Amino acid sequence: MIPHLPGFFVLLSILLVGPSMPLGLAIDAMAAGAAVAFALRRSFRARTYVLLSLLILMFCQSILALIISFTHPALPPPPPTHAVSHLWSIFFFTAVMAVNSSLVAIGALAAGCAALFFEFGKSRSGISKNLPQFSFEIAPAEVQNIVRKLSDVAGIAPPEALIVDSGVPSAFTIRAERKYSLAVSVGLLESLDSTEVEACVAHEIAHLRNKDFRVRTMATLAKLALFARPPSYFLEPAIYRAREFLADETAARMIGGPNALISALSKLNESATLALLPTSVTTCNLTGTGRLREFFGKHPSLESRIKMLREMRWN
Amino acid sequence: MKLRSLRPEGRDLKFALGDLESAVLRQLWQLNTPVTVRDFQRMISKTRPIAVTTAATILDRLHEKGLVSRQLVRVGGPHFLYRAKVTEQEFKNAVVHNVMGTLLQSFNDVTVAYLAEKMSSDNPSDRLVLSRYLSRLKKRPNR
């Protein structure tokens, strides 16, 4: 793979510049640029790794700045420019430092609380507590078989297969009671062919295989910790979208070609603007909508996913 | 029955429902037996070509609104059997009750005066209906 140049420079500059806060803001601007650049390119696995390490490095840099602001409250100020007096620049530098590091502290605290909340609250309680608007039941043998077969192909422990009592065609994976469950809506089973249903299940299994719950949790916690740094608001959804493309790619390989998935997504595209299953932070859904989704959405548009699958090199 | 977001510019069923929802509900009223989504899509596609996923989504939405009832059948792959829960008359009654109830509650005197005025001037035969209705009200003991 050819190294992606803007991403490479952003990484390098973060490593070199480290905890200096005013330069940190410049890094933020570059990271935002990188997020946009990555949003327009496709090499999904590499893309998520770079984006995620960007987020984590931003976090480490902020923590370093926090530590330094405690241990060295009066850092040497940056050289004064002709317009700014020396005294003013000292004051400004310390103020930025203090404000920024306290925001980082608040963010890190919030992320820690969220991590505890999900680990000990959400993921321990049952599905019906996570998604109270639905009722679930054990899936019939055909669906069970598809799930078991595809889990074998992916080399993961099969998730619990469930049916959701909803007419909206959709499928999602949820982590509840410390285990994964894969739910398929009745609407999906009654409106798609069996190969298309298999493709949708494969997409969800691919999420599990690619450990997307872990990736997403890391991205979201990093965003929460960096709530005061604007690029995190681009980076986090960019990671989510890249994982969706990656799940499509993995699914296509698992079922021996992209055609069934293309036809399933095209059918879902007909109805996706009308209604979606309500989502929860603990679920990986098949589809999503939203305005400005190429920048802030957590799901790429179905059109772009179909386009990606059509262009996918398949051998 | 949950009636939300009424559209004053919409005519007929579209006053209370979306375009597709109205078409789907109208088609359901023409059927006497419960239908599967696939059968329903085949029927409605003769007049209005929509995808099966769209039909499923719209039926789910009508179910959410309480206009349609459904039954989960597990034999032969899980699927729903949909049927209309309200008749056309019940639906229209509910819409009128909803709108007029709100108007009478919020702007009582204006609404009553408007109705009396409008009915007697627009359609003279309505005047007869109105007076008959009023005399029937008069006979009723005052609460």
Please characterize this protein's 3D structure.
The complex is a heterodimer of chains A (315) and B (143). Chain A has 315 residues and is an alpha+beta fold. Chain A folds into 2 domains: 5-72 and 87-122; 127-311, 2-Layer Sandwich (Zincin-like). Helices cover 63% and strands 8% of the residues of chain A. Chain A has a 5-stranded mixed beta sheet. In chain A, a hairpin with a 2-residue loop joins strand 3 (171-176) and strand 4. In chain A, helix 4 packs antiparallel against helix 9, helix 8 (194-209) crosses helix 11 and helix 9 (212-225) packs antiparallel against helix 10. The longest helix of chain A is centred in the N-terminal third of the chain and has 37 residues, at 86-122. Chain A is elongated. The two termini of chain A are 18 Å apart. Mean pLDDT of chain A is 78; it is low at 15-19. Chain B has 143 residues and is mainly alpha-helical. Chain B folds into 2 domains: 12-85, Arc Repressor Mutant, subunit A (Orthogonal Bundle); 89-139. Chain B has helices at residues 19-29, 37-44, 52-64, 88-106, 108-122, 124-139; strands spanning 68-73, 79-84. In chain B, strands 1-2 form a two-stranded antiparallel sheet. In chain B, a hairpin with a 5-residue loop joins strand 1 (68-73) and strand 2. The two termini of chain B are 30 Å apart. The mean pLDDT of chain B is 87. The A-B interface holds A 140, 142, 163, 165-169, 186-187, 189-192, 267-268, 270-271, 274-275 and B 20, 36-38, 50-61, 63, 70, 72, 74, 77-80.
Short structural summary:
Chain A is α+β, with helices and mostly antiparallel strands.
